[in-house]
Specification:
Radius of gyration: 23 Å
Number of strands: 19
Number of helices: 13
Shape: globular
Distance between the termini: 38 Å
Strand order of the largest sheet: 2-1-3-4-5-6
Structural class: alpha/beta
Bound molecules: S-adenosyl-L-homocysteine, iron/sulfur cluster, FE3-S4 cluster
Strand content: 15-25%
Largest sheet: 6 strands, parallel
Length: about 475
């Protein structure tokens, strides 16, 4: 595939400009280190989804180049960053509580710089509240300009003022930012940003902007570089990976992208999330089924089993069409592991609607499910709906759902006993001494007796026991 040059910021090289700023700040931090005998310390707290965690790896990459070293505690840090999530109201309330608490830390250490970014910052109400009541916050930016961190820090250091820089929409996809990966052998890779779906309960399209896909050449180059650096597993990230490539100058489907990436030597596993059921194509099922690298696991949120509510949610599918999609997938890949997201208590949810949700759970038998209590998000259409459900009713349904989800997950888990799989070993198990944790191709967590020499390797294991949330296995020495 021919590689076009990356054009940054139309005719100026934004990436290069940021690198120059990083160098200037690095010189300042080197002086600090000489004077104080230690590097400046950073602490980044990340909330929300994998998208945010991946963004934080980029923020960390920039701060490391500036000369910061990571520390575990906010109290020890010279630079604190909160990368926030807006998807649920109560999580936002907790973040405000933590920002309030930072004030007392800053009183003890007046040189502490506090930065806030991520999805919460894309909301005017949040910005107004911060400006009014949280003057100890120094730098605030949003989801479209994380690559400007160094510049915002420099502006704050030069002026001593709080710097707010929030963009309504993205301008460029700036490639080529430094990144600090949490793991040496696996990595996430963004393929599509934003969301066009406007599910009626969801804030994401408002805080992450419209869909835009990265050029396939840029993605492939990034994967190649990661593989050359020891990565064997990649996870493609997007709010809806199934609409990848539709708006590229030379359109390409997600399935075609997977086929291209599969050709990269040394790459062993390809994962992705999230798949929107309405856009999951036969082509994708076909490519997954025949692939030796694309993992046989699929996160396929259904949110509600009630066709009536699915329409109110603006999801674009019905209970029946979702179930027939699942059947098609299971037929093509009988060993596929399915996971999902479910919302309980959407406005107007009746007992009958809820039983439709339970039906889907029982019929599909998910390997695991993320269950959420509906949260009324200001700014979304559903927040205006009048038939909001009372908390005790929602809680009672939520508990019934959780019991069902867990008992089915336990049943599915036990089906693995006696079978053999390949596991990629990730880290030492913190609760079981002498055990290592790994992931099977189907996404299941497995604990196996062994030592840290296993990290990053793929080994054949036999499953000998199963709990609801993890399996226990033993390595098969071939
Ligand atoms: N793009 C992904 C999901 C992103 S948000 C998708 O479409 O599947 C992750 C999950 O948060 C959603 O799947 C949904 O289950 C949940 N969620 C989003 N908004 C919510 C709200 N207002 N209340 C409760 N859960 C919500
Ligand atoms: Fe939110 Fe729906 Fe977009 Fe997922 S697809 S991010 S749930 S609006
Ligand atoms: Fe939250 Fe933003 Fe992800 S709202 S779920 S961090 S895209």
């Amino acid at each position: 595939m021919k590689r076009e040059p990356i054009i940054l910021n139309h005719d100026t090289d934004e990436g290069l400009r940021q690198k120059k700023i990083i160098e200037r700040l690095r010189a300042i931090n080197d002086t600090f280190e000489q004077k104080h005998g230690r590097k400046k310390r950073m602490h980044i707290a990340t909330f929300g989804c994998q998208m945010n965690f991946h963004d934080s790896e980029k923020l960390k990459g920039v701060l490391e180049q500036i000369g910061y070293e990571e520390c575990d505690s906010e109290a020890q840090a010279d630079f604190v960053v909160y990368n926030t999530c807006a998807v649920r109201e109560n999580a936002e309330t907790r973040v405000f509580g933590r920002i309030g608490h930072l004030k007392s830390l800053k009183e003890k250490n007046p040189n502490m710089v506090i930065a806030l970014c991520g999805c919460m910052m894309q909301q005017d109400t949040v910005i107004d509240k911060l400006k009014k009541s949280y003057p100890h916050v120094n730098i605030v930016f949003g989801t479209h300009n994380i690559y400007k961190l160094a510049e915002l820090l420099e502006t704050h250091m030069e002026t001593g003022e709080s710097v707010y820089d929030i963009w309504d929409s993205y301008q460029d996809i700036v490639e080529d930012l430094p990144t600090v990966r949490k793991y040496t052998y696996k990595s996430s890779v963004n393929i599509i940003f934003g969301c066009n779906n406007f599910c009626s309960y969801c804030i994401v399209p408002y805080v992450r902007g419209r869909e835009r896909s990265r050029e396939p050449e840029d993605i492939i180059e990034e994967v190649r570089a990661l593989v050359a650096d020891g990565v064997v597993e990649i996870t493609f990230l997007g709010q809806n990976v199934n609409s990848y490539g539709k708006n590229l100058q030379h359109p390409m489907t997600f399935a075609q992208l997977l086929e291209e990436v599969e050709k990269i030597d040394g790459l062993e596993r390809i994962r992705f999330m999230t798949s929107h059921p309405k856009d999951l194509s036969d082509e994708l099922i076909h490519v997954m089924a025949k692939s030796t690298k694309v993992c046989k696991s699929l996160h396929l949120p259904f949110q509600s089993g009630s066709t009536r509510l699915l329409e109110k949610m603006n999801r674009g599918y019905t209970k029946d069409s979702y179930l027939s999609l699942v059947n098609k997938i299971k037929k093509a890949m009988p060993d596929i592991a399915l996971t999902t997201d479910i919302i309980v208590g959407f406005p107007g949810e009746t007992e009958e609607d809820f039983m439709d949700t339970m039906d889907v759970v029982k019929e599909v038998e998910y390997d695991s499910a993320f269950t959420f209590i509906y949260s009324k998000r200001t700014g979304t259409p559903a927040a205006q709906y009048e038939d909001q459900i009372e908390e005790p009713v929602v809680k009672e349904r939520f508990n019934r759902l959780l019991d069902e989800v867990n008992s089915l997950a336990n049943k599915k888990s036990r089906e693995h006993i006696g079978k053999e799989y390949l596991a990629l070993f990730e880290e030492e198990n913190t609760s079981r001494k002498g055990y290592m944790s790994g992931r099977l191709d189907n996404g299941h967590l497995v604990h196996v007796e062994g030592d840290s020499s296993l990290v990053g390797s793929i080994r054949r294991v036999k499953i000998i026991d199963a709990m609801t949330f993890y399996l226990v296995g033993e390595i098969i020495h071939e």
